[in-house]
Design goal:
Blueprint (H helix, E strand, L loop, with lengths): L1 H8 L8 H19 L18 E9 L14 H4 L4 E8 L7 E8 L6 E5 L10 H9 L3 E5 L15 H27 L5 E7 L1 H12 L6 E5 L5 H16 L11 H12 L36 H12 L23 H4 L6 H11 L14 H10 L11 H5 L3 E7 L8 H14 L2 H4 L3 E6 L16 H11 L6 E7 L2 E10 L3 E4 L11 E4 L7
Parallel strand pairs: 4-5, 4-6, 6-7, 7-8, 8-9
Antiparallel strand pairs: 1-2, 2-3, 3-5, 9-11, 10-11, 12-13
Helix pairs in contact: 7-11
The protein binds calcium ion (CA).
The site of calcium ion (CA) has 8 residues, from loops.
Length: 528
């Protein structure tokens, strides 16, 4: 085109040059389109031919504002209707011959905030979480998600596919991270200025694994209710099923959960100085369900002897009968209304059952009633070799890289015993430089009354991402995170979550439903 313009300038006829006008007009028409594309970047559709190692870009499409249709839910929630325009890139990654890792990368067409937010998974995963991608995109992030290398929420995929198990364990997330950053760089002409991980449950574990194994992948990690001690978590959860389902006498009817809950609150709610239906620090709570023991035969408001024993075991967690060592913590007093998935039957908790069937014993007919708290724990640990577990307490490289991390866990978590996160945090602090040093970069927030990742009687909606972003971007460490509880979409209580080991203390005046009347402070007193 430059050559043509140069020639046109020397038009010897001295008349308006039609070719020149045409060229200028063409350029002027192209200019708006050019500037609607990211500076120095590529068009969305051209990403379809982007060459990346062990990667096949399966589609690259511009999605107009409000037009995204998720594959599993054609109607789509309201949030999709308000999505801005974006470039949707789908790819398949094949780091091994048996791998088939699907990823999607969503890139805001306009108004990119310069940052990358990766989204985590739940359970055995096997699906890209489009809702999480939508939330990140709506905030201006370039974002990505993966199916972790298989489809479906069961553990069967692992049978005969050790490489796919590694993909699920950690490889898919790391590969997604590397490829997503490359796709972002290709589209915008520069890579993300900052990268964040956001995940809960399996997603919390994925975030910890990244910090432990690929410490430079993320600048900020938000890790909720991490399933990071996977092998022992699987034992802990399946042991609850074994405890309550093996012998019919030991089964606790779900109708009795509320009476146990009420008794636990009666014992421990007021310990924190506020009788509000929440146990601020269950580690101070000493509750024995024997207070509910039936005095005159079984009845709806009491527990039989075997039921008392089952409840005690749910609180205590499994212990190795030979070494007497705790295998995994128990659920906390306050969690009783959520006991159904692990203890309610008729089938055992599926995620754990699948782990032993398909990963440990490679036998779909394995019977959970035969779970052995000594040999089987040793076996699953031996098989794992760090594939599914993310328990390395040494985060010094992540800290050295300048990484920030917010951990959180609901005290009423009904699926992953919250004290496991306290245990990991303490082991990590001890290994990574002590509380004062680590606290400058990593903080744990325990959430009274919150269930697994969300829900529950306690304040359970929160914006920890903004807290993380402020910490990474501006060095403003979160001294508290304000959480809210809603009933019918109306906020009826706010309360600060405090950096462990601090707890929220009532100042003594004003509404106990207003976070402003609480302060985060250290607590005296030991564990239960
Ligand atoms: Ca209380």
């Amino acid at each position: 085109m430059c050559d043509k313009l140069e020639n046109s300038k020397h038009n010897q006829k001295g008349r308006p040059d039609v070719k020149l006008l045409y060229a200028v007009l063409t350029i002027s028409l192209l200019v708006p389109a050019f500037f609607s594309m990211p500076a120095q970047g590529a068009s969305c559709e051209s990403l379809g031919s982007l060459a990346l190692p062990q990667t096949t870009i399966t589609s690259a499409q511009s999605v107009p504002a409000g037009r995204f249709e998720p594959p599993t839910s054609p109607a789509g929630p309201t949030s999709y209707k308000s999505l801005p325009a974006f470039c949707r890139v789908a790819a398949a990654l094949k780091p091994t011959s048996d791998s088939d890792i699907k990823i999607e990368v969503w890139l805001p067409a306009e108004g990119w905030n310069g940052k990358f937010q990766a989204t985590g998974n739940g359970g055995w995963s096997g699906a890209i979480n489009h809702g999480a991608l939508a939330r990140a995109l709506a905030l201006g992030y370039a974002t990505a998600g993966t199916d972790t290398g298989h489809s479906g929420g069961r553990g069967e995929f692992a049978l005969g596919h050790p490489e796919k198990l590694i993909d699920f364990g950690y490889r898919a997330v790391h590969e997604m991270t590397v490829k997503a950053k490359a796709i972002i760089a290709a589209y915008y002409g520069n890579g993300p200025r900052l990268s964040y991980w956001v995940g809960c449950s399996s997603g919390g574990k994925q975030g910890l694994k990244e910090a432990q194994q690929y410490p430079a992948d993320y600048d900020g990690i938000l890790a909720g209710a991490p399933a990071n001690y996977w092998t022992h978590l699987m034992v802990g959860d399946l042991w609850v099923s074994q405890t309550t389902l093996k012998d019919p006498a030991a089964y606790i009817p779900k109708e009795k959960y509320p009476i146990i809950h009420k008794a636990a609150l009666a014992a421990c709610d007021a310990l924190d100085g506020v009788t509000d239906g929440l146990i601020e620090n269950p580690m101070r709570c000493r509750f024995d369900p024997a207070v509910l023991a039936c005095k005159d035969g079984d009845g709806p408001t009491c527990l039989t002897g075997p039921q008392v024993e089952s409840a005690r075991k749910i609180y205590s967690g499994p212990v190795n009968p030979r070494t007497k060592k705790q295998i995994f913590p128990g659920l906390e007093p306050g969690s009783e209304l959520g006991w159904s998935p692990l203890a309610g039957g008729p089938k055992p908790f599926q995620i754990s059952d699948d782990h032993f069937k398909y990963v440990v014993f490679k036998d779909p007919n394995w019977d959970f009633r035969t779970l052995n708290l000594d040999s089987h724990v040793a076996l699953t640990d031996k098989i794992d070799k760090g594939t599914l577990n993310a328990i390395n307490p040494d985060l010094r490289k992540f800290l050295g890289h300048g990484g920030k991390m917010i951990l959180y866990h609901g005290w009423n978590d009904q699926l992953i015993a919250p004290r496991n996160t306290v245990n990991y945090y303490e082991s990590m602090v001890a290994k990574s430089g002590g509380a004062a040093k680590v606290g400058q970069s990593i903080r744990l927030f325990m959430a009274p009354g919150m269930a697994h990742c969300a829900g529950g009687e306690g304040p359970n909606t929160f914006d920890a991402l903004t807290a993380l972003d402020q910490w990474v971007e501006h060095g403003t460490a979160p001294d508290q995170i304000i959480a809210a509880h809603r009933t019918n979409d109306t906020v009826d209580r706010t309360r600060p979550w405090c950096p462990y080991p601090q707890v929220a203390k009532y100042k003594g005046s004003g509404s106990t439903d207003d976070a402003a009347n609480f302060v985060c402070a250290a607590e005296k007193g030991g564990d239960r």
